[in-house]
Design a protein that fits this description.
This protein is an all-alpha fold. The protein has helices at residues 4-16, 18-29, 39-48, 53-60. Helix 3 (39-48) crosses helix 4 (53-60).
Length: 84
């Protein structure tokens, strides 16, 4: 059984983050995916997926939704934002 103080702390954190969750959900509905997190974290995320710093900056310029296609410097290789 989970101790009551741990449940109370969890509920308090949930309530404290209501405004952040609402903001993030609104941004998702507006397809402003790259605005949800801070730019440095988004850049690191894209870098870990093989995008160059320049490509990451271009991707992050998209106002809503995702860029049509991101192509790596290796001909014929397409990079995706998520691992499948």
């Amino acid at each position: 059984m989970v101790p009551q103080n741990q449940l109370d702390a969890t509920l308090a954190r949930w309530k404290e983050r209501k405004d952040i969750r609402s903001r993030n959900l609104r941004m998702i509905q507006e397809k402003r995916y790259f605005d949800i997190d801070n730019p440095a974290r988004v850049q690191n995320f894209l870098s870990r997926r093989g995008f160059s710093a320049g490509d990451a900056r271009e991707i992050m310029k998209v106002n809503a939704g995702f860029p049509e296609l991101a192509v790596s410097e290796t001909p014929g290789t397409v990079l995706s934002l998520e691992r499948i």
